[in-house]
Design brief:
The protein is an alpha/beta fold. The chain has eight helices and nine strands. The radius of gyration is 17 Å and the shape is globular. The relative contact order is 0.17.
Amino acid sequence: MPLNIDLHAHTFFSGDGVSSPEDLIAAARAKGLHGLAITDHNTCDAVNYLLEKGLMRLDGLPVDGFLVVPGVEVTTAEGHLLCIGAELPYLKGKPARAVCDLIHERGGLAIPPHPYDLFRAGIRFSVLETLPIDALEVFNAATTLRRYNRYAFKYAQIRGLPMVDASDAHHAAAVGTAYTILNTEDFSVKGVLAQIIKSNELNQQYLTPRDSLRKTWNNWLRLRRRKKIPELAAKGNRNGKVKTEK
């Protein structure tokens, strides 16, 4: 059974994301995806949010035919690193090797996103060589320069690493631009993780110029202000406090 899964997407729990988890799921469903990994920057807050909404299950099974995979994109000391399939505490600035070890302790997969990308904190070759990673993101739909994807693909070939594709969506319209096709009969988080480290099919398409511009604009806004999550902000106001994203 081929499962179309976007393994790298951001909600408004990321400082530069603008869409709700519900909107990302709706967009993914509309594009024929079977699942989505929520990989916000340095936070797993969306996981608890989705569990409370009933859109995600603790046992890792799909809800109404759609699977949400827990994850996080950690800003390590050497660059960005995806944790797929597990939750992590706040680890920003920690060494990439230590983050890999914790990911594995918690049953997740360590996958560097957009490696080589000089403009987006991609982990460099010298560091990649030292890391016990499980797969490599060889196609990022939002990469700064397309040659960075080619470099990543070649490195994965040389090292014999499993390959994945992803949209790196920061708004709902970009979800599913690129995704990984996992051939497994186990439609669960456990099944997805087991298949990722095998040979997979890749669906590759770049963001449209409009979507790329929107992502750049979101990044600029992140530098200008701290985003508040509407629902959490309202809850904080009721308690006399306002909770903002770190």
